[in-house]
Amino acid sequence: MTNNLRTFRLVCSEKDIPAVEELLRSQGFEFSPEPFYSMARRLEKEPFPLGDSLASRFGRIYIQDRSSMLPPLMLNPPAGAKVLDMCASPGSKTGILSRLVGHDGFVLASEPSKDRLALLRQNLRRVQAINSATVSYESQKLPLPANGWKYILLDPPCSGWGTINKNPKAMELWSGEKTVPLVALQRQLLAKAFELLAPGGNVVYSTCTTNVQENEEQTRFAVEELGFELVKLPHPSGFTIADPLLPEMDGVLRVDGSGGGQGFYVCGLRKPGNGEPEHPETAPLPGQLLDLKKLEYPEAIDFSALPDGEIYDFKGKAMFLNRHALNMLPPDIRWQGYPLGKISGKKFRPNPFARALLPENPAKSALVIENAEDLAKLFSGQSLPAPAKGKGPVGLYFKQLLLGFTGKKGSRFIWTEK
């Protein structure tokens, strides 16, 4: 086993795993399952860049280091839970959280950097994390009420010493006194997490560094100075876990990168007590609430497939606003819901990749593709024959796998991302 091991995860339901794997194998990719997560795969043959595969382009896989998958899996929020991801970009962990909490759950992802926020939103769109919303604040200053969340993921900026296989200069760039500001920021973020967490709630703190100052010493700070309780985490199958570098750290995970993947540190923390999250009064939103009964849209769309929430028109962009966000977020916080498509007058046109709007059972007008070659042709700009009647966009499926919406011109199906 080498440190150059590449991993990815499937982005689908359990029942759709065979279809996603068939799509990958049809293009020559070979892989094997990882033991720690049913959706994780180890790449064994890559005939061309995995990111250019059809499965990746349609957001049905996500390339991610295996160690990076551990923090959300260790937080393990139940279906229907509300989770705060304090330092979310690029969204790798946010995407897993979105899947874990499911259709009726909610994830709020925070990222202060405008460039990184754009990447976060792009990746959440790719994996169709329809149950998410984003904010752009320094997370140590998040304007959220105290005691509002039962589950928080905190993966703060760190020195990245565990990533030296990909970033050989990480230890040189972040050595000695250079880590002092990082350590200070991590402590501010931990203190904020304690404030935002409801009594009895859980935080997973993680870093991709092997630096004890950013790992075990921060855990000790969280317990002795902030009042957290240390939670013993289970040993994930398939990982080499090294002994902690400080005593009384039973249950923290110091992931040894020699077993494949990055070096990582993960610890579980609990806020003492028991209590229900507290939520503020909400306020009207600046956009225009859409009345779906008065909206013109393609017959392929199934709005009932969305979670509970509302669709608003924000300057021509149709945004889905999750009910949890509407009920939980204070009136003075700026946040963005999930983009579904565009509004022009009373007409709605879905984003081509907005598979969250598709029904599980294809409409009669849908394009259901049975072999990957035809899908590759369509995606490359070639057209496929279509019935003369009807117009697009129509639902696009690979067998039973939901992909998005494709255009239709006359008697030809065409792919367009406009």
The termini sit apart by: 44 Å
Shape designation: globular
Helical stretch tally: 10
Query: Biggest β-sheet, characterized?
Result: 10 strands, mixed
The whole-angstrom Rg is: 22 Å
> What is the strand content?
25-35%
Quickly count the domains: 3
| CATH architecture type of the largest domain | 3-Layer(aba) Sandwich
Give average pLDDT, whole number. Answer: 92
Indicate the CATH class of the largest domain: Alpha Beta
- pLDDT under 50 segments (min length 5)? none
Query: What's the CATH H-level homologous superfamily of the largest domain?
Result: Vaccinia Virus protein VP39
Structural class designation: alpha+beta
CATH fold annotation of the largest domain: Rossmann fold
Amount of helix: 10-25%
Instruction: Find the count of extended strands (DSSP E, 2+ residues).
Output: 24
Describe the structure.
- The protein is α+β, with helices and mostly antiparallel strands and 418 residues long.
- The chain has 3 domains: 7-63, 2-Layer Sandwich (Alpha-Beta Plaits), CATH 3.30.70; 67-271, Rossmann fold (3-Layer(aba) Sandwich); 288-414, Nuclear Transport Factor 2, Chain: A.
- The protein is 21% helix and 27% strand.
- The protein is built from 10 helices and 24 strands.
- The chain has helices at 17-26, 54-57, 70-75, 92-101, 114-126, 170-173, 180-196, 216-226, 323-328, 372-379; strands at 7-10, 30-33, 40-45, 61-63, 82-85, 106-110, 132-135, 149-154, 197-207, 229-231, 241-242, 253-255, 264-270, 288-289, 309-314, 317-322, 335-336, 338-344, 347-350, 367-369, 384-385, 394-398, 401-409, 412-414.
- Strands 5, 6, 7, 8, 9, 10, 11, 12, 13 and 17 form a 10-stranded mixed beta sheet that branches.
- β23 and β24 form a beta hairpin.
- α7 (180-196) crosses α8.
- The longest helix has 17 residues, at 180-196.
- The mean pLDDT is 92.
